[in-house]
Amino acid sequence: MTAKSVDTAVVGGGIVGLAHALAAARRGDRVVLFERDAFATGASIRNFGMIWAIGQQRGAIYERALRSREVWLEIAAKTGLWAVEAGSLHLAHHDDEVAVLEEFLAAAPAAGERGARLLTASEAAHRGPAVRRDGLRAALWSPTEVNVDPRGAIPAVASHLAGEYGVHVRFGETVRGIDMPHLTTTGGTWRADRVYVCSGNDFATLYPDVFADSGLVRCKLQMMRTGVQPGGWQLGPMLCGGLTLLHYAAFDGLAARRQLAERLDAELPFERGHGIHVLLSQTADGRLTVGDSHAYAMTHDPFQDESVNEAVLRYLARFADVPSTEVTERWEGYYPSLRDGRTELVVTPEPGVTVVNGVGGAGMTLSFGLAEEVVG
Questions:
Q1: 268 near 243, Cβ under 8 Å?
Q2: Are 363 and 19 within 8 A, CB to CB?
Q3: Per-residue pLDDT tens digits for 288-340
Q4: Distance between first and last Cα of the chain
Q5: Is 77 exposed, middle or buried (0-12, 13-18, 19+ CB in 10 A)?
Q6: pLDDT, tens digit, for every residue of 138-169?
Q7: Are 256 and 105 in contact (CB under 8 A)?
Q8: Closest by alpha carbon to 6, among 22, 24, 26, 18?
Q9: What is the C-alpha to C-alpha distance for residues 356 and 369, in angstroms, rounded to an integer?
Q10: How far apart are CA 279 and CA 366, in angstroms?
């Protein structure tokens, strides 16, 4: 059988793979994308739908996130996928949290240029209907964060690739092996000049030796979703509290962060021990997504710990007041994570093949920008 021929092949139908397929197609390549499952089921649909630039490492990674934001909005304008420029509020209920936010703004002029600024408690409550005023001292407002609904957004991007750029999107087809310039799949043989392997949590099928030496581990998280909020209630800006200031790289290296970590380690040992920080976003149909926890290992048990979910909801109640917190869905997610400060793994195991992985929990935020850098 004659091999079908393209310029670029992409392995993986999550957001990282979709982003690389888009970047290659925009360059003018003939592109095929392979996803072994019938539809995306991994981390790309098991998240908040937050395009969360404000949390990313200051400098080039923040700019990468802003570029990804632009691409999301471009795709939304063309496809009609739900994408709301909701912005975000980091709510500070303690002086040490305010100190971190003040130091961050001084250290991140680019965020200030994009409209990030400190609000009073009254200003924050006016901007966010879910903001709990009790004890609130200040809040960091950032207008750059975009809310998408991942369960709809990922299929919409795949359809956009096929319809707008003629990408061969082949769900339910596994790539068994690569021997450049050929790929052997469960559907036949393809020839490609370039291959991008964006296989997410699958470390074993292709180039297992690369992953064994990569430093990647798997992160397991727990998340929840409420039912539709009554009366068409809208969250407005996406919300988080003080624990989040200890999670994201944007706040790394700030002197005030050390004092905050010491207090929260003492006050909330369970939350800190389970990697809990709490984010709140909304879906297109009005449900609220809340989470999450973080545990790191190569292999995890498949079970949820309800005490973790309870801790997440307790902490949410400290800074948010929503009409209904009745949980209708719970799930765990898994994604590859680099624990050494690197923001991604990009390696070339053989000529013509690039493995892209390890974007951690920032795939929705960084992938479009990263793909343009890698492909370009």
A1: yes
A2: no
A3: 999 999 999 999 999 999 999 999 999 999 999 999 999 999 999 999 999 98
A4: 33
A5: exposed
A6: 999 999 999 999 999 999 999 999 999 999 99
A7: no
A8: 24
A9: 13
A10: 18
Structure tokens at 264: 């929260």
Residues 191, 27: contact at Cβ < 8 Å?
Answer: no
Residue carrying the six token digits 């003939």: 30
Task: Enumerate residues 6+ apart whose C-beta is below 8 A from 240.
Answer: 88, 89, 90, 91, 277, 278, 279, 280, 319
Residue 327 tokens, joined: 């949980």
The continuous run of DSSP H or E covering 343 comes out as none
Distance, in Å, from the CA atom of 284 to the CA atom of 257, rounded to the nearest integer, reads: 34
pTM: 0.96
The helix (run of H) or strand (run of E) holding residue 3 is none
What are the respective helix, strand and coil percentages of the chain, to the nearest 5?
35, 30, 35
The residue type found at 276 is I
Q: What token pair was written down for 305? A: 């710990």
Tokens of 202: 């699958």
Report d(CA 29, CA 7) in Å as an integer: 6
Task: Say what angle helices 15-26 and 150-165 make with each other, to 10 degrees.
Answer: 20
